[in-house]
Design goal:
14 helices, FAD/NAD(P)-binding domain, about 40% helix, alpha+beta, globular, single chain, binds P-hydroxybenzoic acid, binds 8-demethyl-8-dimethylamino-flavin-adenine-dinucleotide, about 400 residues
């Protein structure tokens, strides 16, 4: 098989790239290791920045998001039992869109299918070859047969564990990492959210977050040990722990119900650079991970795809290569700022196992400063709604 752009991974990055290229008449083939149901079963992000919302509109798959997504003009931070509102709209003129990654992925899958796009699921042993040549190749197996896709360019959109980043030569790739000594235990329930906006909680027993997918579906998280055993967390135990960490009025009014999904995510900050080698470009979680505290992971994937799709379109339409040459640097400028923000939010909101009374004092001072200073809230809001893509 021959294509212009070979894409590994049918998560939000890979599907969005193939859709944006398709709208400009550029062919791609997407290779995905899992089934569509498996991809949709992963419950992840819930908050979209304005830049990503606009990209989904440009990709012509924003109809359902615009009809069903919830626009939030602010959120709350709670510490010492007191709730403080951060007014995003007042400080930035923008809000965020609450619409789940599962729905974004489904909308993109439907758009690719409607356009007859080549998305090959259950592609096993995807491997990258000849990245320094003009005709890099992807090989894979499906239903016991060997296949080859010859491409002009390859986009590695295969997440943190995929083969793309590992195909870069060791002497080229630099990796920067911080692993946090805790995880997030998340539950999804068909219950009314406890509040109209998200609540981020710093509690001495650990962080908690009240989020939502709609006005009838809630997503809650509590900080847990990084090696926690999910089987030990019954729904009742999760609700009890969540309610202890919430401010009293929220704990009393929260609607509880059976979980429809329950999972533990480790927390990590990670950056790989450069994001290009020869004809391979890395995008999304393949190149970087942020802890979910700042709600930046999916949004960063979208900004990478913004730069990558523009670079490929400029090449195919005008023969220009300068945007491809600056791709890695452009992305990394924005990525490091989101890494800083996510690390900072994680640091001020979580309980660290080795935290002493001095660390706790500094943490509370950070939160007190944030919630009492308008300029601090403006800087915080600017980062939360998302820095510009350009
Ligand atoms: P994805 O979504 O991981 O998609 C990568 C796709 O590549 C496929 N793949 C392969 N395909 C072919 N061959 C191989 N060998 C392959 N290996 C992997 C995978 O099956 C998958 O379909 O990366 P992408 O598209 O870059 O999107 C990034 C986002 O998914 C990610 O940044 C966010 O979900 C991060 N994240 C969160 N972000 C937030 O903003 N808020 C959150 O609450 C939040 N929760 C999370 C998260 C990430 C998690 N991970 C990665 C474990 C919770 C979890 C559990
Ligand atoms: C979510 O709804 O899953 C969510 C929201 C905000 C975050 C992280 C996760 O910061």
């Amino acid at each position: 098989m021959r294509t212009q752009v070979g894409i590994i991974g049918a998560g939000p990055s890979g599907l969005l790239l193939s859709q944006l290229l398709h709208l400009q008449g550029i062919e791609s083939v997407v290779l995905e290791r899992r089934t569509p149901d498996y991809v949709l079963g992963r419950i992840r992000a819930g908050v979209l920045e304005e830049g990503m919302v606009q990209m989904l509109r440009r990709a012509e798959c924003a109809g359902r998001m615009d009809a069903e997504g919830l626009i939030h003009d602010g959120f709350e931070i709670c510490f010492g039992e007191v709730r403080h509102r951060i007014d995003l709209k007042k400080h930035t003129g923008a809000g965020v869109m609450v619409y789940g990654q599962t729905e974004v992925t489904k909308d993109l899958m439907d758009a690719r299918a409607a356009a007859g796009g080549a998305v090959i699921y259950e592609a096993e042993n995807v491997a990258l070859h000849d990245l320094d040549s003009n005709t890099p190749k992807l090989t894979y197996q499906k239903d016991g047969a060997e296949h080859e896709v010859v491409c002009d360019y390859i986009a590695g959109c295969d997440g943190f564990h995929g083969p793309s980043r590992r195909a870069m030569p060791e002497n080229v790739l630099k990796e920067h990492e911080r692993v946090y000594p805790f995880g997030w235990l998340g539950i999804l329930t068909d219950t009314r959210p406890v509040a109209d906006e998200l609540i981020y909680v710093n509690h001495w027993r650990g962080f908690a977050l009240c989020s939502m997918r709609s006005m009838t579906r809630s997503r809650y998280y509590i900080q847990c040990a990084f090696d926690e055993n999910l089987d030990e967390w019954t729904d009742d135990r999760i609700w009890d722990e969540l309610r202890v960490r919430l401010p009293a009025d929220a704990a009393e009014s929260i609607e509880m119900g059976p979980s429809i999904e329950k999972s533990i995510a480790p927390l990590r900050s990670f950056v790989a650079e450069p994001m290009r080698h020869g004809r391979l470009f890395l995008a999304g979680d393949a190149a970087h991970i942020v802890p979910p505290t700042g709600a930046k992971g999916l949004n960063l994937a979208a900004s990478d795809i913004h730069f990558l799709s523009n670079a490929l379109i400029a090449f195919y339409q005008d023969g220009q290569t300068d945007l491809m040459d600056s791709y890695s640097e452009k992305c990394l400028d924005r990525i490091w700022k989101a890494e800083r923000f996510s690390w900072w939010m994680t640091t001020v909101l979580h309980r660290f196992p080795d935290q002493n009374s001095f660390d706790r004092g500094v943490q509370l001072a950070e939160l007190d400063y944030l919630t009492s200073s308008e300029p601090a809230q403006a800087a915080f809001a600017e980062n939360y709604v998302g820095l510009p893509f350009e």
